[in-house]
Design brief:
There is one protein chain. This protein has 299 residues and is α/β, with parallel strands linked by helices. It is 27% helix and 18% strand. The protein folds into two domains: 68 residues, no CATH class; 188 residues, no CATH class. The strands form six sheets. A three-stranded antiparallel β-sheet has the order 5-6-7, with no helix packed on it.
Length: 299
Amino acid sequence: MVLERGDVANSWRRERWDSLRLLTPNWQSRLPGYRYDGADPDGFMTMAEVVEFVSRFAAVAAAPVRTHTTVTSVRHTDAGYHVATDRGDLRCRCLVLASGACNLPNVPALQQDVPASIERVTPMDYRNPDQLPQGGVLVVGASATGVQLAHEIHRSGRPVTLSVGEHVRLPRSYRGRDVLWWMDASGLWNQRYDEIEDLTRARGLPSPQLVGTPERTTLDLNALTAIGVTLVGRLAAVRDGRALFSGGLRNQLALADLKMDRLLDTFDDWGERPPARCRRRRSRTLRAHSSASLVTTAS
């Protein structure tokens, strides 16, 4: 039995913003005995399409899903587990916790120092720019979600500042193929956990700056600064109504360039192609101020 606190595909129905598309090409959407079979394998599913994909899988698999059931506690017993829910208790010999890695927003403690007059939302609450008050917007975090929201909010006419810490930068396409094709074909996504040198660090790496669009555009810090988004360092503190940012932005940008170049070198080596000509073309180091920045967070 599968217990779901909402509807099937609830996270995609209730906890994503309106314009979000998958970062992965449609051909990579694969479940046991079930995969994408539409007319656009290289496209990127919209949220409505993801909901339909997951819901159809639940029907095809005849999964025993009990929806609108919230688990309130789990207790180990001599015979297995006692599971308490808001729709009655269950007993089982085997239990799988499949709550996911992104079901709670990670909000830093310094948010308590943000003035009450500043509206604060997490990506789980955000739907579109219309719900935000007019004025400047600070987006904290520059992984896939951060760069996408900064881009969308800026296009709505609001000035946007993006706080950048450690990040991973990738081109959407490389040498005529989607970058995730290279990840899949080269075997990098098939690494076992015991083949990774620092597993704890690997699990904590930020998601790459990617966006899935019909135009297959690259959305990274270069693209954002080109349209007028302001970059600052990692958010370090909020004091007296002002946000304080670290001064290591230039180092973070250089590190991201280094990691990207190493990854693309791996693709070149795997493909057994002469890499020299393409390596010089691809690197576009972003120029930015490295000194500490101080901005007022008032809208």
